[in-house]
Every structure is written in structure tokens, then in C-alpha cells.
Amino acid sequence: MTLVVDSLDAGYGKLAILHDVSLEVPAGEIVTVVGSNGAGKTTLLRALNGIIRPTAGTVKLDGTDITGRATEKMAALGLTHVPENRLCFPTLTVRDNLMLGAWSRGGKGDLDAVLELFPRLQPRLGQAAGTLSGGEQQMVAIGRGLMASPKAIMLDEPSTGLAPKVVAEIMKVLTQLRERGLAVLLVEQNVRASFGIADRAVVMQRGRVVLEGTPAELVELPEVRNAYLGGA
Ligand code: ATP
User: Fold this and answer.
1) What is the pLDDT of residue 81?
2) Which of 68, 134, 135, 226 has the greatest CB tally within 10 Å of its CB?
3) Which ligand 1 atom sits nearest the alpha carbon of residue 189?
4) Where does the record place the ABC transporter domain (predicted)?
């Protein structure tokens, strides 16, 4: 098991948000976390990545306890976080944005492997990242995370604001990461897209895991269909 979260509590100052959250992401699997606005999905990724310090519970990566380690150490430990809003450095070139991801590995990253996943970025390596389309910027944000050769990658709503065709492209890349043996933890509002590729899904409500199963199992539940799939 690559990423194991056990009985995690976390929040902001005295404000408790996550309560007793447990989940597991095996190598070569995609686990998606869904839930309505404010359910605590982003907070979960922040707690896993050390941006906020869990108040209870543990996070293990390949058996190593990484709970509450400093964020800047996480990439070197093998955990990559692609935050919401596809943060790129707009005035830096695509190449420099990608190379920043290799920093935790002493500047050595496999640029060719990233370009193989995102061939669209090849002709744009010298272009300022701020001039890319939203989808291409998301590719840079994911590619930068991959430059650290992680064991596990966590993505926070990579599909936001993207056209369906680009969303499909991003989802396909996540399946390729699965094939390469990464553990993929995908937070998504676009449940149709994430259920389409995920091996397992976790539903969060008010900071707790309330349901889990395969997407096929969960779509059978009326409460899941009504809340996340428009009742369809
Ligand atoms: P969304 O889908 O809208 O992004 P989410 O499931 O990711 O929602 P979170 O962003 O984790 O939810 O928010 C969970 C709760 O934590 C919310 O009530 C939110 O107001 C609160 N929260 C988020 N960030 C902070 C912060 N920096 N300080 C205090 N409270 C916060």
C-alpha cells in the first residue's frame, strides 16, 4: 500500500475540519475523493502534504510515517501535491516551470518522460507559462509535480474550468500514471469524469468519510446519484 491515511484529524487553528479520516491508495490505483463544497477535500490534501499539521492520526508513504512533515520535504519523500488553480509561474518559461519540480531531486528530473505524457508542451517549452491555455497550464502543473518522480500524486480538482475534451485528456494522463505504478489521489467536483477512471471512490461530508466503494457500486446508490450526478 503506497499511501495510507489512518484516523486523521486536522483543521485550522481551533477549527476542527477533518474527523477520523482513513483511506488507502495502493500503487497503480486511482482513488477519487468527492463531496460537496466545504466537505473538507482540499483540507485533506493540505493535511496529507503538511501544509496544515494533523492534530491526530497518521499518514504513511510506503511504510514511512510522514505525518506533519514539512511541505518542502514531501516531494523528496515521494509525495506530490498538484494544488487547485494550476499554479504556474506566468513569466517563467514552460521548461523552467517544469524544472522547478526537479528541485527536490537536485535538479535532475525526467523531462522526456513528462513530455511523453504531455506532447503538447514540447513545442511550447520556451514559451512563458502565462501565455498557455488553461488546459496546458494544468499540464504544466501536473508535469512539474511529476519531475520529482513521486510514488504518489494528489491532485485538487484538475478539471476545473476546462473544456470536456481537455478534461478527458487530463483524465487519460492519470490512467497512464496508474500504469506507471503511481498511487493517484484525485479530488474532483467533476464526479462523472473521476468515476470514469477511478478504481475506488471515497465520499466526504462535513469532514468525514461517509461512503466508499468502487465507482460502479457508488453510482447504484440514489444518494450518490442525486448529490453528485444530477440525479441521472
Ligand atoms: P470545495 O469543493 O468548495 O473546494 P472542499 O471540500 O475542498 O470544498 P475545504 O476547502 O477543505 O472543502 O473546506 C472545508 C472547510 O474548511 C470549509 O468550512 C472552509 O470554510 C474551511 N476552511 C478552508 N480553508 C480554511 C482556512 N484557511 N482557514 C479557516 N477555515 C478554512
Assistant:
1) 93
2) 135
3) 2
4) 3-231
Tell me how far the alpha carbon of residue 73 is from its chain's centroid. Answer: 17
Q: Whose CA is nearest to atom 19 of ligand 1?
A: 38
Could you tell me the pTM of the whole model? 0.94
Average pLDDT of the chain? 93
What is the structure's pLDDT at 232? Answer: 59
Tell me whether strands 64-65 and 29-34 are parallel, antiparallel or unpaired. Answer: unpaired
DSSP β-bridge partners for residue 32:
186, 201
* pLDDT of 231: 66
R_g of the chain, CA atoms, integer Å: 17
Confirm if 46 and 12 have CB atoms less than 8 A apart.
Answer: no
* Single-letter code of the amino acid located at 199: D
Atom of ligand 1 nearest to the CA of 204: 6
> Which residues, at least 6 apart from 108, have a Cβ–Cβ distance to it below 8 Å?
102
How far is 120 from 63, CA to CA, in rounded Å? 36
pLDDT digit string, tens, across residues 32-80: 999 988 999 999 999 999 999 999 999 999 999 999 999 888 988 999 9
Question: Which residues have C-beta within 8 Å of that of residue 79, sequence separation ≥ 6?
Answer: 3, 48, 49, 61, 66, 150, 151, 152, 153, 154
Atom of ligand 1 nearest to the CA of 43: 11
| Cα separation, 60 vs 183, whole angstroms | 13
Whole-number Å distance between alpha carbons of 139 and 115: 10
**Residue located nearest, by CA, to atom 27 of ligand 1:** 12
Q: State the residue for C-alpha cell 511529476.
A: 146
pLDDT in tens, 160-183: 989 999 999 999 999 999 999 999
